[in-house]
Amino acid sequence: MEPQVETQTAQADREVKHLKKTLGRLDIVFLIVAAVVSIEALGQVSGFGAETFTWALVLAVFFLVPYGLIFAETGAAFTGEGGVYVWCRKAFGRPVAAIASLLTWVTQPVWVGGSMAFIASEAWSTYVMHFEHGSFADYGFKLVFIWLTVLAAIISLRHGKWIPNIGAILKILFLVVFLVTTVIYAVRNGVAGLSASDFAPTIGGLLGVTPLLLFSYLGFESGNSAAGEMKNPARDVPFAIARSAGIAAAAYLLPIFAILIVLPADQITGIGGLMEAVSTVFSVYGSAAPAMLTITGVVFAIVLMTQGSAWMIISDRMQAMAAADGAFFGGFFGRFHPQLGTPVRVNLLSGVVATVFCLVAMQVTGSSAAIFGVVLSISISTFLLSYVITIPAAVRLRTRFPDVPRPFRVPTGDAGFRALGALCFAWVALGSWVAVFPGTLDRLFGLDYDFVETWGVSQLTFEVFTLGTLAVLGILGAVGYLRARPVRAERPVGAPLDGSVAGKEAAQL
């Protein structure tokens, strides 16, 4: 018996006609690198000390590799515009797909407005032009930063793709310069007092760094949100995931190690850890160091802006396809601009959400570093929770649609594919719990956990902010789905009434 799946709506069928195939193989690699390699999180991760490197290596082998294999196969086989939303709809139906899409999408404006804008502002104020936290200049910088990322996502992808492309290249050059300079600094001045025992893994370290490292390693399948705009997604997606995952592993492991050998653990802060390490090692350049730091601060802010725009390019397309497919309000947000081919309405919605979250975060009592840590944790929570759905969906697609051509196939049977999925799911489940309820597992294992010292805010403030965000999302998703019923009722011309679709055709719906 053929699988029964929900085909896309008439509006989705109309909107995909506005898409233009402009993304080549290298464009996809740069887009993923620009979005996924989160250099702003390096300081936060490194704050857990030398064992951070150990856990980063463990997750690279036992999470990043199986995760990359799973989504290289899935992304090459199921190439409809919308990526994760399409996969989850085909696997579990529209309601579940609507939740996965909303969690994935909202992570990006929350992250841009509540984390990226803060760290870019801190770096600019420290190394380029000083202004006080909470001042008019601080507010102005953050708001300009947010809306530049939105503007970059609105531009036609034919031209707009160069923004993440340039951002990815600058990001790689930034890290290369930092690493080379770190080697020079270490030769001249020695390194922080680390011993082999400092790298020994502990339960406390595992619980502390897992959410952050997963947040850093996830997202390589996100390029498929623009699969309808790729020249040859079946061929290029596996290549792009393999190359970008390799770049990401190096871009995390090497800088983390460099930060650890330059700065003592008690001097590493989440919001400034990487730039503080850059400032330290740039002392080798003598009188040229201040000017170089200023230039580096500007480059760092540009990299963060292009990183945010890359995520908005990707995630806004997914949410626009969800809206066009009757899963998010009445199709209003499911429009792609006829000339630009971009989801302008969702782009603007992302800008509004990012702005609101930025303004709310600015009112939270505590230092900018504490605000950054809390908002980053909320972004991690929503992002990881989306994979509680997405990973099982990818596994189900392997078994539910065995006849769909797979240009790349993981060299295991279905049982092996399920085992890879189970391993990835276990990591994500652990990370999700720790992100939403930090400290609970630590206490379960008899470990000391001072919440205020760790986060800079009370546990009540943290949970109200986190659970409140998730509750608002739940209400938003439910209302949005109910309001989209008329869109779901309109079927494409020629679509079968029973929704039966199989084989290669199913991969495109």
Automatic annotation (TrEMBL):
Top-level taxon: Bacteria
Gene3D superfamilies in the cross-refs: Amino acid/polyamine transporter I (1.20.1740.10)
Xref: InterPro entries: AA/rel_permease1 (IPR002293), APC_superfamily (IPR050367)
Key words of the record: Cell membrane, Membrane, Transmembrane, Transmembrane helix, Transport
A GO CC annotation given for this chain: plasma membrane
Subcellular compartments: Cell membrane
Membrane-topology annotation of the record: Multi-pass membrane protein
Function as written in the Swiss-Prot or TrEMBL entry: Probable amino-acid or metabolite transport protein.
Protein name: Amino acid permease
Taxonomic source organism: Mycolicibacterium wolinskyi
Lineage: Bacteria, Bacillati, Actinomycetota, Actinomycetes, Mycobacteriales
